[in-house]
Design a protein that fits this description.
22-stranded antiparallel barrel, about 1000 residues, five-stranded mixed beta sheet, Immunoglobulin-like, mainly beta, single chain
Length: about 1000
């Protein structure tokens, strides 16, 4: 543990110690020989490109004839080889992409200095040195393919990558949202987003420091290329999630501008509501109200070869009428009455302005400055189209206004010699993400959730209040410095990164309570100890690492080791009084979580035939789970108070007010006993943490990934890749309620409903269900500790990627491929030894996939019949490409075929159906209910999503101006797979909420000059 004052030392070290070079840095490397095949040391190798403000970078071959030029920007290069007494060799038109090492060898023959041999040919497409698995999205792909240019739409081009079916974007109908993507069994929360190698994720308060914790969405007019690392991640990455790095445009020595405008409305959309969907209860579908995008940029020299600039502006958004959602005709009534004349709609509005300046200070030093401001309004969130759990009427949707969100960065680089390169940078990201009830929903309107349909109306159940400036804000500071020492055979790097975060989160609930009804009858009142104001802090997330890329003949070893230190604490903060809790004053708690970890990375790439066209690659890497200021949540004083408790409620007098003493823990009046007797009592600690979890070496949640693959150039400009991935997790946490034991639970069974959609037609007994003894009901003394103290748990992903990337004649492109994989989780050895109630579920499922969480959610038992989830191997197919025809006409298309949504059947079973088996009322009382899963998770899926999007464009060139008109057809074949459906068993079970939007046309124009 670092002692007091260590953060200051660590921060200074973060500004002084060298670190890994930019994530987007590319390289050119190779060997130079003479005509007899002998190696040539001392050859000067120069790489020049319009992409470099310094114009040219040079090195000299070592005693083995090897050279390597690092930290090159993506672009088109000319490589020149010169040695006195030998002819000069020039390689032209070499296209270099992000994170790619292009192998360029040369043979020099004896000749005069004035003799130059020019070589042209296809650029290398196989990286025979790096093992990082990446997928590239170039400017051409963004401009040519039918796409909304959002993270979700980019993920739709990568086999195996997903942002979740409910967030599936079709031509911008979802729009930019704070979402995480995942691949190869990774976690969306572990995704990191970088801008020019500098991190832009916010440091979330209660969750992790990655994934959807973002407020800056990329501006396509500013993007040169997007690199997406999906496997064998570079040592710069702390976690094992997808790493998205946006490489920005810098301007250049020639002024250039672009303007893009496109849009569509509901008149351009077809109806794809089928008879089969109507039979399942869906009478209306999500339809387009409007989608638009206005984007412009300008760049060029402030001073040629000295100072470049690039600036862009974007205004975009979308509106959708949400299927089966209507405004409430009686918004203040205790029953929901849909107004069929007013379909509900979601509205997402965005605005972005950014700028970048690149300054070549002198021959060795370069500085860049960049800044961006974005404003967003997710004006109706939670209706069911934006996320999977959304199931609300419009007045119960959260009004989220995110403004202003800002991002600034500065970077410096210094080429000390042709072997030593330094660079450093600093960035600051501020997010203001504030939620509130919809305008007109007053603070006294209590939210109601209908248990039969899991539908919420009247008011949001929870929201981020906006009664003060720091309601929901996150400030993060990121620094990185780098030193690379490069010879022909070695590229050695040492480095550090530093992340510091100051998030603020405020949670509020109207009247500090919500209601739950069952078939319109009050059943439960949920009490909340709100308002809550979380002020966790990430004091330091420090990474120190070393990496060597060592080429030995045809073998290149990628060896790295990273040390990570994380310190999270809770500052002093005050909370105002609520309905059920007094005003609270909390002191600071330093060093809540202090972790030290070593994460090695091993990789090897072998040039199989020595031609640079076939590479065998293997890797083994250890990653940490995404953590941030949320690590301090373990001992946040607010967690010494149970902030949620429930009471069964029989509204005998029909006044919709619980007639009882809500804070009396015993049954009284219309209310059953309080579910947790510690509710609202700040002196009682209901959850404690094993100190072994929070402090020490190797205590963070982690995962290992190994891969074996081959990449081969099948013809010039085209390569195929086949790679096997395996990922496994460790350091799982469980929450052991020490106030009860497994023997305090009484078993019961239920009879599944008779339903042909259930296994065997239903009617079977479902056992292995438990209810706590009434004498122990509401008693909580939780200990969070490692699951290994109770038994073994496992979570393993196995999968294969088969991909193709081709640059074809006449400028045609084709990319994509197939992913086949599955994730198996097993906790059977732990089940029955700890309490797995819903109250402790978030701790227990730390790091677990959605399929397993759904099998446990709400199960009031020390065991479950679904403790092992083993879905079948699922297959994804994604292809995209473009092809130029004649007279400036070009066609392009994307194809996706992905598995349908997983189907579960969560049944709310009333006490009356349980009493015959249990022999008594539920511990919650006669009005209580139990939640039971009727289907084995991971085994039942809806219809596959088979989507084709198509574009035809026409370009006209007038002098230096190019005008391109575009027409996109999204969901070309007007298919209607279900994206989100009712998973609550009952009359509306499997009733679709959201289906793929029907075919629609979007028109646009782009002008480049």
């Amino acid at each position: 543990m670092l002692r007091k004052g260590s953060f200051g030392v660590a921060f200074v070290l973060g500004l002084v110690l060298p670190a890994l070079a930019s994530a987007q840095g590319s390289s050119i490397a190779g060997v130079v020989r003479d005509s007899t095949g002998g190696v040539l040391p001392g050859v000067t190798v120069e790489a020049s490109s319009p992409a470099l403000i310094e114009k040219m970078r040079s090195v000299v071959t070592d005693d083995q004839g090897l050279y390597r030029i690092i930290d090159l920007r993506p672009g088109t290069y000319t490589v020149t080889f010169t040695l006195p007494g030998f002819s000069t060799v020039r390689r032209e038109a070499l296209e270099l992409t992000s994170n790619f090492t292009a192998t360029v060898n040369a043979d020099l023959r004896v000749g005069g200095l004035e003799e130059t041999v020019t070589v042209s040919g296809q650029s290398p497409v196989v990286d025979v040195q790096n093992v990082v698995q990446q997928r590239l999205i170039s400017t051409a792909v963004l401009e040519n393919l039918p796409s909304a240019k959002s993270i979700q739409s980019v993920a739709a081009l990568i086999p195996g990558m997903t942002a979740g079916l409910s967030n599936h974007d079709v031509g911008g109908t979802v729009g930019d949202q704070p979402l995480g993507t995942a691949i190869h069994g990774g976690r969306a929360a572990d995704q990191h987003i970088f801008y020019d190698g500098m991190r832009t994720n916010n440091v979330n308060t209660v969750g992790t420091a990655g994934g959807g914790s973002q407020s800056i969405f990329f501006n396509p007019a500013s993007v040169h290329e997007i690199s997406m690392e999906v496997g064998n991640l570079a040592i710069l990455s702390e976690t094992g999630g997808v790493v998205i790095n946006v490489i920005p445009k810098e301007g250049g020595n020639v002024f250039s501008s672009t303007i893009l405008a496109n849009g569509a409305n509901g008149d351009l959309q077809s109806n794809n509501l089928s008879d089969e969907l109507r039979a399942r209860g869906l009478q209306t579908v999500t339809t387009l109200k409007g989608v638009w995008d206005l984007n412009g940029a300008v760049g060029g020299p402030i001073k040629r070869d000295k100072v470049w600039f690039h600036a862009a502006y974007r205004r975009w958004g979308n509106e959708n009428y949400v299927a089966a959602r209507y405004f409430n005709a009686t918004p203040l009534a205790w029953t929901y009455t849909p107004d069929l004349s007013r379909p509900a709609y979601e509205q997402n509005l965005h605005r972005s302005v950014n700028g970048r300046v690149t300054w070549q200070v002198n021959a060795r030093n370069k500085l860049t400055f960049a800044g961006e401001r974005q404003d967003q309004c997710i004006c109706y969130s939670g209706l069911g189209s934006y996320n999977a759990v959304g199931n609300a009427s419009p007045e119960a949707a959260v009004f989220t206004n995110s403004s202003p969100n800002t991002y600034v960065q500065t970077k410096w680089s210094n080429t000390l010699s042709n072997k030593l390169f330094l660079e450093g940078g600093f960035s600051r990201n501020t997010m203001n993400w504030n939620g509130a009830p919809q305008p007109g929903v007053g603070p006294d309107v209590i939210s109601v959730t209908e248990l039969r349909t899991n539908f919420t109306y009247r008011a949001p159940a929870l929201f981020n209040g906006r009664d003060h400036d720091d309601a929901y804000r996150a400030e993060s500071y990121y620094g990185t410095f780098a030193a690379s020492y490069v010879t022909g055979s070695h590229s050695f790097r040492i480095g550090t990164t530093m992340l510091h975060g100051r998030p603020y989160t405020d949670f509020q609930v109207n009247r500090d309570m919500t209601y739950q009804f069952f078939d319109g009858v009050p059943r439960t009142v949920i009490l909340r100890a709100t308002p809550l104001k979380y002020r966790n802090r990430l004091k330091a997330d420090l990474g120190l690492y070393a990496q060597d890329q060592w080429t030995i003949d045809r073998m290149t070893l990628n060896l790295g080791l990273r040390y990570t230190y994380l310190n999270a604490f809770v500052p002093a903060h005050d909370l105002p009084a609520g309905t059920f809790v007094p005003a609270r004053n909390y002191p600071a708690i330093p060093a809540v979580a202090v972790w030290h970890d070593l994460t090695p990375r091993f990789g090897a790439s072998f040039d199989l035939f020595g031609t640079g066209r076939t590479a065998l690659k293997v890797s083994l890497s250890r990653y940490l789970g995404g953590e941030g200021a949320g690590a301090a949540q373990a001992k946040n004083p607010q967690n010494t108070v149970v902030d949620t408790a429930s009471r069964a409620w029989t509204d005998a007098n029909g006044d919709y007010e619980p007639t009882c003493d809500l804070l009396n823990p015993d049954a009284n009046g219309e209310c059953g006993p309080l579910s947790n007797r510690n509710f609202g009592q700040p002196a009682l600690i209901s959850t404690t943490y094993d100190e072994d979890v929070l402090h020490g070496f190797g205590k963070r949640h982690y995962n290992w990934e190994t891969s074996v693959g081959i990449q081969h150039q099948v013809w010039p400009g085209a390569s195929v890749n086949a790679t096997y991935f395996r990922r496994w997790y460790g350091n799982f946490l469980v929450n052991d309620n020490r106030a009860v034991a497994p023997s305090d639970y009484d078993p019961f069974c239920i009879t599944a409903p008779v339903d042909p959609r259930l296994p065997g037609g239903g009617g079977n007994q479902i056992c292995g269900l438990y209810d706590i003894n009434p004498a122990k009901f509401g008693r909580v003394d939780n200990l969070v500790t490692f699951s290994k103290n109770y038994g073994a748990m496992s979570d393993v992903y196995d999968g294969v990627d088969l991909t193709l990337n081709a640059r074809l004649p006449r400028g045609a492109t084709l990319q994509g491929g197939m992913n086949i994989g599955r994730e198996v989780t097993d906790l059977c050895d732990v089940v029955g030894k700890v309490d797995l109630t819903a109250a402790v579920l978030p701790f227990f499922t730390s790091g677990l996939p959605t399929s397993l969480i759904s099998s446990l959610s709400g199960l009031p038992s020390p065991s479950t019949p679904f403790c092992r989830v083993a879905p079948p191997f699922l297959t994804e197919l994604k292809l995209s490409g473009s092809y130029p025809l004649w007279w400036g006409v070009q066609v392009a298309a994307t194809i996706q075929s992905i598995p349908g949504t997983q189907i579960v059947a969560t049944a709310v079973v009333p006490n009356s159906q349980i009493v015959p088996s249990l022999g008594r009322n539920l511990a919650a009382g006669a009005a209580g209910t139990a939640t039971v899963q009727l289907l084995e998770p991971g085994q039942t899926y809806g219809d596959r999503l088979n989507q084709v999007d198509f574009r035809v464009s026409k370009s006209v060139r007038l002098n230096r101006t190019t005008i391109r008109g575009m027409m996109d057809l999204y969901n070309l074949f007007n298919v209607s797979p279900v994206l989100n459906l009712n998973q609550r068993y009952g009359p509306a079970w499997q009733q679709p909420f959201i289906i793929l939007p029907g075919r629609f046309a979007k028109f646009g124009v782009q002008v480049d000059f």
